Amino acid sequence: MTTPATTTTDGRDVRAKTLRGLLLARELDTARHKRGFTTRNLAEQMSMSPAMLNRVMTGRRVPTALEIGGLCSLLDIHPTRRPHLYRLTADADLTDWLLRPGTEGDTVSSIEQIAETITWVDPTTIPRPLRTTAYHDAITRNAGEEPFPAPPQNTRAGKSFIHTQALTHPGIPGETMREQLRHLRDTTPGNIRLLPAASPPHPGFRLLEIDHFPPVVHINHHGTHILLEHPESTTPYTALCRTLETIALTTGHTRRVLNDLATHGRHR
């Protein structure tokens, strides 16, 4: 698993310094496009050089609070959104996040939207994008999960490593579980790899790979979201994903196991 190249031909680094800086840059640049500004025109309005504004719009330079105020005004960013951008600016040098329930609720979804691929590792339940509505409702009600709404149908599932122990659950009605297994078998079989029963179940996490940025790890611990972006923190997780690639069942074997369980209620 490699990080995409992040330098131009003349050797200048074009990668955002931190994830907060990247999120800030993406939101500002999206607003710039929406308002129809070119980089040069907006730079003139801000009394900045185009090169300096370009560094802001790629996350290589963190704007000052005064510059954020000017950009928000010119780009017509809604007043209710501006405090979030000011916080990203103030904390732009920080890495790793701890988001407790009720705080910065859209941060995780913002990171999902800029991720190129998402790898799920789940030892006990079906990853959220792969769930049927009935399974999601049952697991929320009976397994004590936080009551998130069912995932939208267009959610990107990415690659999922699912431990075989997650394919049965005493609190899920039999037909609901079989419907879920058929859904796994028939919808995205190429993206699912089952982990053998003998493999030790690892704590669940997601690995989000973002263009021109190191991998980001997301851990949901009883509603508290932990985001790791520093390579020292994420390396054990990227290494684990490489290990899981080697021990997981092939996609063909995975499909046969899912078919056996969905059809006969057991793995033959």
Question: Can you tell me about this structure?
Answer:
With 268 residues, the protein is an alpha/beta fold. Helix content is 43%, strand content 14%. The chain is built from 10 helices and 7 strands. It has helices at 19-35, 39-46, 50-57, 65-74, 82-90, 107-114, 133-142, 174-186, 231-247, 251-264, and strands spanning 97-99, 115-122, 159-163, 192-195, 205-210, 216-221, 224-228. The protein has a 7-stranded mixed β-sheet with strand order 1-7-6-5-2-3-4. Strand 5 (205-210) and strand 6 form a beta hairpin. Helix 8 (174-186) packs antiparallel against helix 10 (251-264). The longest helix has 17 residues, at 19-35. The chain is elongated, with a radius of gyration of 21 Å. The chain starts with 18 loop residues before the first helix and ends with a helix.
Mind summarizing the main beta sheet? 7 strands, mixed
Structural class designation = alpha/beta
Task: Compute the separation of the termini in Å.
Answer: 34 Å
Task: Report the sheet-strand fraction.
Answer: 5-15%
Q: In what order do the strands lie side by side in the largest sheet?
A: 1-7-6-5-2-3-4
- The total of helices stands at 10
- What characteristic shape results from the CA principal axes? elongated
The count of DSSP E runs of length 2 or more, i.e. the number of strands, is: 7
**Helix-strand topology string:** HHHHHEHEHEHEEEEHH
The oligomerization state is single chain
Q: Quote the average pLDDT.
A: 85
Q: Please tell me how large the radius of gyration is.
A: 21 Å
- Ranges where pLDDT stays below 50 over 5 or more residues in a row are 1-12, 150-155
